[in-house]
Amino acid sequence: MPGAALAAGDIGGATLGAAWALPFAGMLLSIALGPVLFPHLWELSYGRFAAFWSLLVLVPLVLLRGFEPTLGALLHTALLDYVPFIILLFALFTIAGGILVMGNLDGTPATNTVLLAIGTVLASLVGTTGASIIMIRPVLRANDDRRFNVHVVVFFIFLVSNIGGSLTPLGDPPLFLGFLRGVDFFWTTTHLLPQTAFATVVLLAVFYALDSWLIRKEADYPPLRDPTPDSKVRLWGKVNILLLGGVILAILMSASWKPGVSFDIHGVHVELQNVLRDIALLILAGLSLVLTPGPVRAGNEFSWGPIKEVAKLFAGIFICIIPVLAMLQAGREGAFAPLVALVSNPDGSANNTAYFWLTGALSSFLDNAPTYLVFFELAGGDAKALMTTGALTLTAISAGAVFMGANSYIGNAPNFMVYAIAKDRKVRMPSFFGYMLWSGAVLIPLFLVQTVLFFR
What is the rounded distance in angstroms from the CA atom of residue 455 to the CA atom of residue 419? Predict the structure, then answer.
């Protein structure tokens, strides 16, 4: 198709072949397998991997579709999706990294269950990454004299690093992408509350029973020396709690205040309230850096490495997903018509069970944020329709993306971070496939029950 025949931002999704999805698949597989198969090379070169796959999209698009359509599509993705997404993650990462919990508790089953419950609630307020940063060290200190403590970290990943982040757009990246696409801020709170509450109660009950059995079993062994004796728990960096409130207010402002003012940037309409939201988030992150004492961040072993990696990798993801989203928007006329049929019932209605499990299966091994976007578009991409007539479908997509990110170490970014921190603290964490035995035994039966209760 001649480039001149296409408007800026229109890359002709109905005429794109399935091969245009290969860079996106390559990008996600690189993220999934790189840290496992060649960790040292990945640590040094993840930015080059992202650039490579991005160029495999952009160069052919310019050559075959023209410069103007490609630039328009790139700006649309960057200004409306990528930049707001990264600014929110940066703000939450910076502010949460300034909250330090010191002191130590005795890791009894009751104490551990309460700590996991607190972390689960916290995840929807500061994000799964932020909650994991704040809570993992207190949980490890409480259990560093326990002979059996692997299960504590495993359930921490299940609840705090994944399922707990399902109730607000702040909780997990997929939900914020939905918010940017027009999903109301509190829509996820109301529509995912039953599924989240059910999963949380079941997992906490299973954990308490397992932890109680294991602590009784420990009585048969000599007690271990406690490297961190019990001491009063203290919270440092309290100013960051106020700043987190500012983050929530900034996002609510952008959702409720519609002045009708926008800026046109090469055909992309950037609305004033969203610009002000992003500026406010950057100011709040800057205040956190200024107001938080250095030793507090040092206590959290804070560094900019993780957010730099996220920024580079998601730049590649958002570029590689451009032709994929265009093909999905073409629906049954595009290259993904078989996938459309797979998630549709014979009468044309949505197969919510398929949406839940397909979104979840991909989110288990690939990044759950782009997976959410793929199925959001597959379901029509119209936020207003999905929040009303398609509410159960959007709930299935959201729950699949967030919940099943817990199925493997690479399903969600905090999973591997918690694994690394725990391993550094001498916890004998299971291997990649060993962890999947845990998730297969605990989570998969839970998700099957949820399918029957909520997604049929």
Answer: 31
Q: Is the pLDDT of residue 4 over 60?
A: no
Contacts 24+ apart (CB under 8 A), 51-55: 51/316, 53/23, 53/24, 53/26, 53/27, 53/316, 53/319, 53/320, 54/23, 54/27, 54/315, 54/316, 54/319, 54/320
The residue type found at 279 is I
Distance CA 207, CA 152 (A): 8
- 399-424 in b/e form (b: 16+ CB < 10 A) is bbbbbbbbbbbbbbbbbbbbbebbee
Q: What are phi and psi of 233, to 5 degrees?
A: -80, 130
Cα distances (angstroms) measured from residue 222 to each of 32, 141, 147, 287: 41, 19, 9, 49
pLDDT band at 56; cut points 50, 70, 90: very high
DSSP 400-454: HHHHGGGGSTTSSHHHHHHHHHHHHTT-----HHHHHHHHHHHHHHHHHHHHHHH
Q: What pTM was computed for the model?
A: 0.80
Q: Are 166 and 172 in contact (CB under 8 A)?
A: yes
The pair of structure tokens assigned to 219 is 């009585």
Residue 390 has pLDDT above 50, yes or no: yes
